[in-house]
Design goal:
The chain is an alpha+beta fold and 296 residues long. 35% of the residues lie in helices and 30% in strands. A five-stranded antiparallel sheet has the order 1-2-3-4-8, covered by helices on one side. Strands 11-10-9-12-13 form a five-stranded antiparallel sheet. A three-stranded antiparallel sheet has the order 5-6-7, covered by helices on one side.
């Protein structure tokens, strides 16, 4: 047996420097450089010593010519300081003292190459980019309008700033209403009806009465996919616990099962009309501030 007494209680030591990270746990040496990780069992190493520059030199048994892992007969592991180098060397030499070297250590080395990191944006990242581009275009449009405004510079800047803020407030409110209306249209067009379970809620406004609770829906799609805690597109009033939990009829989008809803309720219709009116008020104020700045 190559290993006569493995060091199972040895602490794992780490040596880092020069773009290389080495870890030794008493039984195997891991060398990480970039996306490549080499795993060397202790029996693959014949000797270890410290050379100049706080570097540990590790010698590997056998001929590297037949191996494809890319390591040579000697591997140099730089350290940050002399203490870390001595500690790492002490653990490594203690393990080597109780281990019989293998005839061909290079044949025992394993190489793992990590896949390159993907920099593609997820759905949240793409949404953030779109929002950023829209805000940049919105700001640029107001700036150009300020340059062409017939009003004095100070008055034009103030009125356009107010118009910009009011436009954002009203636009965001109407955009949210439009999103829910679109979801309901898609559910009506291609939705699949199933019986599910209402399990809790998301309360948009917790002040005052029990208003506008969006149920969390648990259900199983017709192809067997379980869905949990999907917020309903349609809101309900909550005047009893029956509205929070229990069996419910619902509709989900088979192309996007995270889009689901209870049946249309009077509470949701009232909420939609009220928030639409709330969004139109600042939007109308924004228009009143913009009109005097028009160059024609």
């Amino acid at each position: 047996m190559p290993n006569r007494r493995p060091m199972t209680n040895a602490p794992e030591t780490v040596l880092t420097g020069g773009g290389t990270t080495a870890r030794f746990d008493g039984q195997r040496l891991l060398i990480v450089r970039g996306r490549k990780t080499w795993t060397l069992p202790t029996c693959a190493i014949t000797s270890a010593e410290v050379i100049a520059g706080n570097t540990v030199r590790v010698a590997i048994s056998g001929d590297p010519g037949q191996a494809r892992h890319g390591l040579s007969r000697v591997v140099e592991l730089p350290g940050a300081n002399s203490r870390s180098t001595e500690a790492f060397l002490g653990q490594l030499t203690a393990a080597l003292a109780t281990t019989t070297p293998a005839a061909d250590g290079h044949a025992l080395i394993q190489l793992h190459t990590r896949a390159p990191r993907s920099y593609t944006l997820g759905s949240s990242g793409r949404r953030a980019v779109r929002v950023g581009l829209l805000l940049a275009g919105y700001t640029l449009l107001l700036t150009l309008l300020g340059w062409a405004s017939p009003l004095e510079d100070g008055l034009a800047a103030f009125s356009l700033s107010v118009a910009g803020v009011l436009g954002l407030i009203g636009g965001i409110a109407l955009w949210r209403m439009a999103r829910r209306a679109r979801s309901l249209w898609l559910l009506r067009r291609r939705g699949v009806g199933v019986v599910g379970q209402a399990n809790g809620y998301v309360r948009i406004w917790s002040k005052g009465a029990h208003l506008w609770i969006f149920s969390k829906l648990n259900f199983t799609t017709v192809d067997g996919q379980p869905m949990r805690d999907v917020p309903s597109t349609v809101s309900i009033w909550d005047f009893s616990n029956k509205a929070i939990t229990g069996r419910v009829d619902l509709v989900y989008d088979p192309q996007r099962p995270t889009r689901a809803s209870r049946r249309l309720t009077a509470a949701f219709v009232l909420r939609t009309l009220l928030l639409t009116a709330v969004g139109l008020v600042p939007l109308a104020g924004s228009v009143l501030c913009l009109v005097p700045n028009l160059p024609f």
